[in-house]
Design goal:
It contains no helices and 17 strands. The chain is mainly β. The chain is rod-shaped and about 110 Å long. It starts with a strand and ends in a 17-residue tail after the last strand. The model is unreliable at 68-77 (pLDDT under 50).
Amino acid sequence: TVTAEAGATLKIGHMVNNVPTEITSAYSVVESSSTPGTYTITVSGALADGGYGIVAIDQAGNRSATPSTDPTAAEINNFIVDTVAPSLAINTSSPIVAGKGLFDFTFNEPVIAFDASDITVNGGTLTNLVNHTGTVWSAKFTPADGSTGQASITVASGRYTDAAGNQGEAGITPAITIDTQGPVANSLLPGHAPTV
């Protein structure tokens, strides 16, 4: 619901290649007959992701503002359409020594509701999860004692969201090779020297 001058025409504007462009379909506007100046906007089709502005044009042709993605612009209202799921890449950020190392969790946009309980670790433990920027987190991986082979760090889809509520995509590390078993010395029989 939007309030504007009675008898005005309301249009939705969208920034396309940094040019304000009016949308001519995918929505309808109805002014209340009991409360002139109160408008209901119904979106009837899919709007592309991005920023939109609602612009009022009075009967004399005066416009309230130019469509903009800037939420501080002097418009009746601004809104953002965001239907794209956030994504996640998990990669090592330091040399892996004996399978140990730091791993970065890098999101393509700021996320919410992400913490250590969202991470599944096989073959070791993950500690010291730190949020650095809102899009980059890091944690320390330590393999289990006496283990060899492959380990993995994964985040299942839907374990975090972006500000618009879109559920996040899954993330998984590249293969982590671990070997925490100590070397075993070959036994020698008494009186036998090793052959060089």
